Amino acid sequence: MDRLIDAIRAKKNPTVAGLDPKLAYIPAFIRRAAYAQYGKTLEGAAAAVLQFNKGLLDALAPIVPAVKPQCAYYEQFGWQGMRALEATVRYAQEKGLYVILDGKRNDIGTTMEAYAKALLGTVEVDGTELSAFDGDALTVNPYLGTDGVAPLLPLCAQRDKSVFILVKTSNPSSGELQDRLLEDRRTLYATVGSLCEDWGTQTRGRYGYSRVGAVAGATYPAQLGELRRALPHTFFLVPGYGAQGGGAKDVAPAFDAHGRGAVINASRSILTAWQKTGADEQDYAKAAAAEAVRMRDEIVAEVGGFE
């Protein structure tokens, strides 16, 4: 996680902007231009998404250290959408942003290795190594156990990548499974968090955090604080800020005494800021940047400085 922490410290901003572009979020002038060229097709939708993202990235790059594209919003537009995702990742990285691919992948053995190669690594084509998406980190569903996580770790070490394991997610029904008590009277989420510490033991960096992070939601601040105390070497990706109801006080328990240990995600509140503020659609990126600054300032005021 050193690269992400360095980026957070450089911009004094522990937030990540989620790039989850619904067509309804995209200004009409962008959609019209894309449809004029490609029609109301998957190609046209993907072109609109990419243009929207580029405008956002131009405005957000000086403010946020990282972005988090959610793969499903691109997959819904077929291979054309996946091409837009790849182009979005490249464009973001060219601007110096750390890219967390939110794919929540989950499988075992060589299948998980294939996911790792696709989203974080390289694939060999008759002796030639090529990268597909080449994100900096990937969200991972852990519910196949170590068999579904272990295949990722060698590649993470080789290519300086990280993973974020789903531990205590922000959605309302997460407790149906994650809060269940196991035979040792620990919750399932606490057990998965403990596994994150174990999986990352050999990969701790300069700041003490390993390559195996955890997803822990802002909508459950008590559990967030519990996990921060229990997992001193596990960096948190914290969804649930903004549109889902989480605020600065809710995310504060995710941080350690140095103001490190977490990056806070907001997606909808940034992407739709132009609509919520009544801004001209041509100023959608400016509105997104203003919301990103407001979010940063609110969290920094609550958490304090970053050492």
TrEMBL record:
Protein name: Orotidine 5'-phosphate decarboxylase
EC number: 4.1.1.23
Gene3D superfamilies the record matches: Aldolase class I
Active-site residues from the entry: 104 (proton donor)
Pfam families (UniProt xref): OMPdecase
Alphabetized PROSITE patterns for the sequence: OMPDECASE (PS00156)
Reactions catalysed: orotidine 5'-phosphate + H(+) = UMP + CO2
Segments forming domain Orotidine 5'-phosphate decarboxylase: 14-288
Top EC class of this enzyme: lyase
Record bears the keyword Lyase: yes
Keywords recorded for this protein, A-Z: Decarboxylase, Lyase, Pyrimidine biosynthesis
Origin species: Caproicibacterium argilliputei
UniProt pathway annotation: Pyrimidine metabolism; UMP biosynthesis via de novo pathway; UMP from orotate: step 2/2
Family the UniProt entry places it in: Belongs to the OMP decarboxylase family. Type 2 subfamily.
Top-level division of the source organism's lineage: Bacteria
InterPro entries referenced in this protein's UniProt entry, alphabetically: Aldolase_TIM (IPR013785), OMPdecase_AS (IPR018089), OMPdecase_type-2 (IPR011995), OMPdeCOase_dom (IPR001754), RibuloseP-bd_barrel (IPR011060)
GO MF terms held by the record: orotidine-5'-phosphate decarboxylase activity
SUPFAM superfamilies named in the record: Ribulose-phoshate binding barrel
Gene Ontology biological-process annotations: 'de novo' pyrimidine nucleobase biosynthetic process; 'de novo' UMP biosynthetic process
NCBIfam families for the chain: pyrF_sub2
